[in-house]
Amino acid sequence: MSENFEPVTVLFGKNVFNDVVMRERLPKNVYKEFKKTITEGRFLDTSLANVVANAMKDWAIEKGATHFCHWFQPMTGLTAEKHDSFISPTTEGTTIMEFSGKELTQGEPDASSFPSGGLRATFEARGYTAWDCTSPAFIKETGKTVTLYIPCAFFSYNAEALDKKTPLLRSMDALNKQAIRVLKALGNNTSNSVGATLGPEQEYFLIDRRFFEKRLDLMLTGRTLFGAPTPRGQEMSDHYFGALHERIASFMHEVNVELWKLGVSAKTQHNEVAPNQYELAPVFSTVNVATDHNQLVMETLQKVALRHNFVCLLHEKPFTGVNGSGKHNNWSMVTDDGINLLDPGSTPHDNMVFLVMLCAVIRAVDKYAKLLRASVATAGNDHRLGAHEAPPAIVSVFLGDQLTDILEQLAAGGAKESKAGGHLKLGVSVLPPLPKDSTDRNRTSPFAFTGNKFEFRMVGSSQSTAGPMFVLNTIVADVLKEIADELEKSSNVKTSAQKILNKIAKEHSRVIYNGDNYTAEWAKEAEKRGLPNIKSTVESLETIMDDENVKLFVNHKVLSKAELNARTEILLDAYSMTINIEAKTTLNIAQRQILPVAIEYSGKLAKAAERIGNAGSNPDTQKKILDKTCELISELNNGIDELKKAAAAAIGIDDTAKRAENCRDIVVPAMSRVRKAADSLEMIVDARMWPLPTYAEMLFVK
Ligand code: ADP
Ligand code: MG
User: Fold this and answer.
1) Which pLDDT tens digit goes with each residue over 645-654?
2) pLDDT digit string, tens, across residues 373-382
3) DSSP string, 17-36
4) Residue 453 beta carbon below 6 angstroms from any ligand 1 atom
5) Closest CA to ligand 1's atom 17
6) What residues does 128 pair with on adjacent strands?
7) Alpha carbon of 328 to ligand 2 centroid (Å)
8) Is the pTM higher than 0.90?
9) Which domains does the chain have, with CATH numbers?
10) Is 202 in the pocket of ligand 1 (CB under 6 A)?
11) In the predicted model, is pLDDT for residue 278 greater than 50?
């Protein structure tokens, strides 16, 4: 045991300005007022803010902090921070440490270089950050710098959202408002609010740092743009849930300790399917805190990896030929008095609240399938969704036997019974019979009911969870609003609710699919059912501005039309920029690393053939290999020429959507052509000369 061993219970949350610390450090009346401000979502008045700020500063300074920062989440999908020290010089040439309520609650970090999608021209550069007091402040130690972090929203002079957090918070309000209406109408008079919960499972790869440093593609794009398949991949299923390697386990331990200190409840860790792929899952929390925490998880994984001479790859598809990485978003709704609205209980068929909530989610997912798809559309995720890997780009819902049966009963007029789970008889005398879960699992479904929550599996591993979660919150709020409108004006709530369930069960059964989502049959079947199958990011992003989506976001005050439009522009632009960087990196590596080596090797072959001939032996084999090498060199060179032209032409297109389409249709195929020739060369060129670490090295060295 190390010298400075601290039990986890002591360690946990020690760097968080949480409820316990507040209760301890704030005057009783201030604490009470402040809690009320948070729960009622009211404006924080200045005198209150001053007291809180002061307590926060004292606490932070005791922990070694010299700086504070407003921590926000611009549209890059990453986090941003600008540090200010607490010092305030006095006239005597000394300094005191100050932190005012205003500094806590509001900042103006210029920050004009973040994407705004035209909402904010640089000449009117004012951008503001405002404290999101529903997510606790915390202290982060980076090297020797200790800083107080204040989670913030980021918006423009005209209060337009410039970040990922603002619409997420707005969507939580929308969901709360409509869900409470439904609950009240159904006779609940104990709950005051409903919050969305999120537990994001994070997948990632770890590769040895020395390989990373030799791969410009990994350094600049996060994924390999070249690499012949490894002779051994994941086909033996021997990595999945395998015993943790010692070096990995040490890494994971350090990640956990760092996260626990930050109050992130890192819980589950294991080997994933692909070699050198892993997963970390925290215990769920409210969706905005979980989103902040997931950013900390991604950052901590990367930071700690370097200390262990690993690099953590968060890209959705770092390696062709083995599984990519996702971020499964487990989502539910819970009341302030602790009722999980998606908990079926033991007899779901007569649990009206559950049935209404379940049906609301089903209708929302079917009605807004394209929007949900667009919420996970990124260049990186294109390699997962719609490729021959799961989940597919078709949005469908897995319910399992029991709930599917209940839905069928609802469609037929009303649910009268719930299929029991029964017992699993294991046929081994030393093992007792286990109660059987009433739903089996389905790992191929993009949107699966898993016991008491839904698991949205299409989210990309490097993505902020904010986008997909504010979409999900809003579409569910929208359906709950329809239901609340109906129920509130009804004289017989039970009958009206039955009617609503019946209608939804009939209308939306098409989105339920319990089978294997990876198969070609499902794609065919889905088409018959009229479900959209939007394969590419560009095509998907182009659906965002559809009328029904604009109406949705405007009605629920989550995004204005201008804000939605700005976001669409930013996302399309990000796609083109990503492809452009990949294209330029492909060219760089192909021209400067692969082509020279291939030419050198062909020279060696030519010389060998000549010498062998001179020595009186038959040089035919050498010549054959030489011919093949020369053929591939010429193919590689042609590919390079084509890609150069394609990339230059695409980037010159003004219209954002057209530019993105051009990247997808012309640049991406040109990149594939270069890669194909290069990967074929890798298979014949002398391994001692090959300039890039191989797939086998990156995936199997630990
Ligand atoms: P799996 O078996 O699907 O891999 P994990 O245990 O890895 O499951 O992850 C499940 C995730 O779901 C955890 O983050 C867990 O906290 C979360 N979760 C459980 N209940 C809820 C809930 N009610 N709302 C949101 N997330 C939940
Ligand atoms: Mg899961």
Assistant:
1) 999 999 999 9
2) 999 999 999 9
3) --HHHHHHHS-HHHHHHHHH
4) yes
5) 199
6) 155
7) 6
8) yes
9) 8-163 (3.10.20.70), 171-225+236-421+434-559 (3.30.590.10), 575-700 (1.20.120.1560)
10) no
11) yes
